[in-house]
Design brief:
The structure is a single chain. By secondary structure, this protein is an all-beta fold. It is built from one helix and 16 strands. The chain has a six-stranded antiparallel beta sheet with strand order 6-15-8-9-10-11, with no helix packed on it. A hairpin with a 2-residue loop joins β13 and β14.
Length: about 190
C-alpha cells in the first residue's frame, strides 16, 4: 500500500520524523518513511534498546519499532500502533502491541500481545518511550515509559532463535489497521 522514500525522513530540531503522505508514487497510494540499522551495520544479541516516539493521529497509520534477524520469523515487535480505520482491524487509540515471533514444529507462534497502559488513555499525538530488554536465550521484557508492560519467558528455545537482531523504525499505512478511505486520509494529507 505504501512506498518508502528517503524524502519522507525529515529532521526537525533534535528529532527525526518519519512522514506518511497520501500521494501516488511507485504504483502505491501512500509514501512513508523507514530507517533501519541493517543487518550489516548494527545488530544486537541481547541488552536494552528504547526509542522516544510520537505516535500519529490519523487512522490507518501503522508505525512500528521492531527487530528482525536475517529472515522471518524470528521478529521482536517493541511497539506496533495499528490505528484502526473501522473499529475491527487494528487497535484502539489507547492500545499498542508487543510481540516475539518464533518458529515451532507446527508453524509460527508469538508471545506478548496487546498493551493498554494504565492511566494513559489516548496515545495519539504524544511522545512515549518504548523499550525492550532482552536476556539472551532466557527472556524478553517490553517497557512503556520505563514501566514493564509485557514479557515473553515461557520458551527459552523460542527466544534463542533470535540472534543478531537489527532494528527498524517505520511508518506504514494500511494493512493490519485497514486502508484509510479518502475521507479519513484525503489526497495530500500527511502525518508524522
Amino acid at each position: 500500500l505504501a512506498y518508502a522514500r528517503a524524502e519522507n525522513l525529515e529532521f526537525t530540531g533534535e528529532s527525526l520524523d518519519l512522514v506518511a503522505r497520501r500521494e501516488s508514487y511507485g504504483g502505491k497510494s501512500f509514501t512513508t518513511g523507514v530507517i533501519s540499522s541493517g543487518y550489516s551495520k548494527f545488530t544486537m544479541n541481547g541488552g536494552y534498546v528504547e526509542a522516544r516516539i510520537r505516535l500519529p493521529d490519523t487512522v490507518g497509520s501503522w508505525p512500528a519499532f521492531w527487530g528482525l534477524y536475517t529472515g522471518w520469523p524470528p521478529e521482536a515487535d517493541i511497539m506496533e500502533y495499528p490505528l484502526t480505520t473501522n473499529g475491527v482491524n487494528g487497535l484502539a487509540a489507547d492500545q499498542y502491541h508487543t510481540a516475539w515471533h518464533y518458529s515451532t514444529a507446527s508453524g509460527n507462534a508469538a508471545g506478548a500481545g496487546t498493551v493498554n497502559p494504565a492511566g494513559v488513555g489516548d496515545l495519539r499525538g504524544a511522545y512515549h518511550v518504548f523499550g525492550m530488554e532482552w536476556k539472551e536465550d532466557q527472556w524478553v521484557r517490553f517497557y512503556f515509559n520505563g514501566v514493564q508492560v509485557s514479557s515473553f519467558t515461557t520458551s527459552p528455545s523460542a527466544i534463542a532463535q533470535m540472534q543478531y537482531m537489527y532494528l527498524i523504525a517505520n511508518y506504514a499505512v494500511g494493512g493490519w489497521p485497514g486502508t484509510p478511505s479518502l475521507e479519513q486520509w484525503p489526497q495530500g494529507h500527511e502525518d508524522r
